[in-house]
Design brief:
nine-stranded mixed sheet, binds magnesium ion, binds guanosine-5'-triphosphate, alpha/beta, 14 helices, Spore Coat Polysaccharide Biosynthesis Protein SpsA, Chain A, 15% strand, 436 residues
């Protein structure tokens, strides 16, 4: 039995964003997928050898692939100094296809160890290899994308598999991805669905990967379990959608392209794979690349959550809020410290002045493009309501955390400020300055 878990679609719904150029690049063998409920399809496979859990540990079903999937498969492999892995990989792929039509597109970023020469000599030996040579390292995401673009140029290619060159991905498991491809537009080889295995990773590496995946899952609510693996099979429409994720040039491609596919409302599946730590060559995953990955997911999350222009808007909002705090402190000093006003009256006055100050700056700067369609007085009234709500939440959080739970009052106030700020930003963006 081979289990293919089909995952529901993007939380942002189907068909958002510009439509793909599917027609110009060729037909989709399965047609554009529609939103389907979460389900598990169990495909009966007489030629797979199941383990105790009923999941395949070894599959010998390559000969039956042709019955399920017509057309040619393109296997895209990004390489950077993989000389010692390439030959074994290409031979493994050839065995996996066992006579079925396929091509391999190798995208090499100027490897200094002679990877490109190995690729050329394998081509001379008769393996169907196309080599895309780039002069310098441009990132794994950029390389995979370039490979997909090249593969899509072949009109007889119906699906595109991407995999690492370091033998972490087992060519014999391509068949499993192709089986998933019969049900979904993007099939993810997953280490985290039942039956998925990771071999040779230190505990820290496992934790990093698990936390990274949990983070993506939480922020983007994808319901996929593995978002960081490059072992995948794309249908043509999925590949066309994915190549729009061009700004994700590094390891962040794995989730950037996934989101691009999801935003087209295409269907995803995960199938278990066995991932093996590389034996030859060195990892290209550096701490800097991880930092870039993290920054990329946070930026993407902010863009999706707040809108494409909104990270900038949020920055402006914070800047305005900061000047508002200074204004409030200054007014309090003036009214109480200098003029001797009763503290409660002074603080009320200081808060009101800072609200007016913030409103003016936000109205003229942060949300200046959102004023049309509402009048100033309404916006001001709404902003007051939003501020009242956020102050109330701040006070509530403070009371619960500090007075009820005994948490340090400064920490409690800080959490209250953050909660208040979130409500303030949300209320301002989606209510006070809604625009038309
Ligand atoms: N063309 C190209 N390939 C790259 C680049 N960076 C990584 N690769 C390839 O992408 C694949 C995955 O890279 P790895 O270094 O194995 O990274 P990883 O698999 O995420 O990390 P490890 O688990 O440490 O191996 C390998 O085939 C690399 O050769 C790049 O900038 N350009
Ligand atoms: Mg690797």
């Amino acid at each position: 039995m081979l289990h293919v878990s089909l995952r529901p679609n993007s939380p942002w719904g189907c068909g958002r964003g510009p439509k793909s150029h599917v027609e110009s690049l060729g037909p989709n063998p399965q047609g554009a997928a529609t939103i389907r409920p979460k389900l598990t399809i169990a495909a009966s496979r007489a030629d797979s050898v199941g383990d105790a859990r009923g999941l395949p540990t070894t599959t010998r079903h390559v000969p039956s692939l042709g019955m399920e999937l017509a057309g040619k498969t393109c296997v895209v492999i990004p390489t950077l100094n993989e000389r010692n892995n390439l030959e074994a990989l290409v031979r493994g792929i050839d065995r996996a296809f066992a006579g079925l039509p396929y091509i391999v597109v190798i995208v090499d970023d100027g490897s200094l160890d002679g990877t490109a020469e190995v690729a050329r000599s394998l081509r001379t030996c008769g393996y169907p290899i196309e080599l895309v040579e780039r002069t310098s390292k441009q990132g794994i995401g950029s390389a995979v994308r370039a490979g997909l673009v090249r593969g899509l140029l072949h009109e007889d290619v119906d699906r595109l598999v991407t995999m690492d060159a370091d033998l972490s991905h087992d060519p014999s498991e391509i068949s499993r991805l192709l089986t998933g491809a019969a049900y979904a537009d993007l099939t993810q080889g997953s280490r985290y669905v039942t039956g998925g295995v990771i071999e040779g990773w230190a505990r820290t590496r496992r934790w990093v990967s698990m936390v990274a995946n949990a983070l993506v899952r939480m922020l983007f609510r994808t319901e996929m379990l593995d978002h960081t693996s490059f072992f995948r099979c794309y249908s043509r429409p999925a590949a066309v959608a994915a190549i729009r994720a061009e700004k994700y040039t590094g390891y962040e491609w794995s989730f950037g392209s996934l989101l691009a596919v999801l935003s087209e409302g295409l269907q995803l599946a995960e199938v278990p794979i066995t991932f093996r730590e590389r034996r030859c060559g060195t990892s290209k995953l550096r701490t800097r690349a991880m930092g870039r990955w993290l920054w990329s997911i946070l930026r993407t999350w902010a863009e999706l959550r707040l809108g494409r222009d909104r990270p900038m808007r949020a920055i402006r909002y914070v800047a305005v809020g900061s000047t508002g705090i200074l204004m409030s402190q200054g007014m309090l000093f003036l009214l109480h410290g200098v003029l001797g006003l009763w503290p409660l009256a002074a603080v009320t006055g200081a808060i009101e002045v800072s609200i007016l100050w913030n409103f003016e700056l936000n109205d003229r700067w942060t949300f200046k493009d959102r004023r049309a369609g509402s009048n100033r007085r309404t916006r001001l009234a709404k902003y007051h309501a939003v501020c009242a709500g956020s102050v109330a939440l701040n006070a509530l959080m403070f009371s619960v955390l500090s007075l009820e739970l005994g948490i340090n009052y400064l920490v409690a106030n800080f959490v209250g400020i953050l909660a208040g700020f979130a409500v303030n930003l949300r209320g301002s963006m989606s209510w006070a300055w809604l625009g038309r």
